[in-house]
Amino acid sequence: MFHFTALVTLLAIGLYFFTGLQVGKARQTFGIKAPAITGNPDFERVFRVQMNTLEWLPIFLPSLWLFAIYISDPIAAAIGVVWIAGRVLYMTGYSQAAEKRSMGFGIQALAGAVLWVGALGAIGTRLIHG
């Protein structure tokens, strides 16, 4: 069973849902009517947080699950929590200023890379050694 990874998956999806709510709130605050996505830099940064999170989910979620299946559920979940923490730092930093997004982005990118490389290595090892 993969209870830890399942929980982290739900937390990541919850974070994405939260970023969507933030975009809706920012639309009201800055007067940006749908379907517009430009017009106010403060809104655009909130919108980019949501879009960048969406762009990373197809990298993160399969890597998370493959790592859990081939290596370890608790370790995958722990790295997944680091990914989520990086996304939260990215969100809070980028919402303030574009220059403040780098640390959070780097943390989540590193966590995603560890999951992806770990899963790839484990699958490759099993293919080679049966």
Q: How would you describe the overall organization of this protein?
A:
The chain is mainly α. It is 85% helix and 0% strand. The radius of gyration is 17 Å and the shape is elongated. The chain starts with a helix and ends with a helix.
- Quick one: how many beta strands? 0
Distance between the termini: 22 Å
The proportion of residues in beta strands is under 5%
Mean pLDDT: 98
Q: What's the CATH superfamily, by name?
A: Membrane associated eicosanoid/glutathione metabolism-like domain
Measured as a percent range, the helix fraction is over 70%
Classify the oligomer.
single chain
Overall tally of domains: 1
The general outline is: elongated
N to C succession of SSEs = HHHH
The helix count comes to 4
**Helix-strand makeup class:** mainly alpha
Give the biggest beta sheet: none
Question: What are the defining features of this structure?
Answer:
single chain, 130 residues, mainly alpha, Four Helix Bundle (Hemerythrin (Met), subunit A), 4 helices, elongated
